[in-house]
Amino acid sequence: SSSRLFILRDITKIKSLEEERDEFISVVSHELRTPITIAEGAISNVQLLAKREDVAQVKIDEALEEAHKQVVFLARMVNDLGTLSRAERGIGDSKESIDITELVAQLQSEYTPQAAEKGLAFNVDIAGKAGNVYTSRLYLEELLQNLITNAIKYTPEGSVTVSVNRDCCNVCFDVRDTGIGIGKSDQKKIFDRFYRAEDYRTRQTNGTGLGLYVSAKLARKLGCKISVQSRINHGSTFSFMLPIEDPPQTSVQ
Length: 253
Ligand code: ADP
Fold this sequence. Notes:
- The chain is α+β, with helices and mostly antiparallel strands.
- It is 55% helix and 17% strand.
- Strand 4 and strand 5 (170-177) form a beta hairpin.
- Helix 1 (2-51) runs antiparallel to helix 2, helix 2 (57-89) runs parallel beside helix 7 and helix 4 (137-153) packs antiparallel against helix 7 (211-222).
- The longest helix is centred in the N-terminal third of the chain and has 50 residues, at 2-51.
- The termini are far apart.
- The model has no long low-confidence stretch (mean pLDDT 90).
- It binds adenosine-5'-diphosphate (ADP).
């Protein structure tokens, strides 16, 4: 009967959510295991080396640097997982009115020095008065920060540009870079958890492969979707759109 079918379907759904969670935990612990093993190995190596007298200091420094690198990586992973879990639990769901021009200016002062360190220009492109959006400040900031951090990370030379374009009802945020770009087949997978492009230049950077997975989740929370346009060796543009908040009616006295 149709009611039995309904129940069956419902159970399947609950089970798959549980399974998804279990699978996620198992994937996360797997991803954590490698850096922990490497850091642990490097530290016990230092302990051994430090007891010997004929050991060059550089050997100790190298092992410590490796351990440090892995711990930094672990910290980043835990940070991404924290953002993910906050979004999943709905912390930061509260909405407020956000002045777009102000928000972008704040990002500009935050990221211009970081871009300059790599010799990149950080540009902001806002035409006219951008207006306000009514949304979660935490999620919107985290989303833009993730896209900008990636743009800087995957751009060896040139620039990163945040542009804001609005029409009557919507505002489109673009984070554009002149970086390594993303191949067509990778473009479909970069939002998957722990996915990193096969490109050797990606592999030269540190990353958890969680940033865009978290970003996609944040975008869903904001009620939008991230789209990507990219050409290998030319750069990438990540975009999303939010509705403009109607300005309050000012009454003439
Ligand atoms: P990661 O920690 O590796 O940066 P992300 O989830 O943030 O993880 O990104 C997934 C992958 O997408 C990256 O490993 C990289 O291959 C690719 N990617 C993301 N942003 C860019 C970009 N702006 N330019 C080129 N490749 C990018």
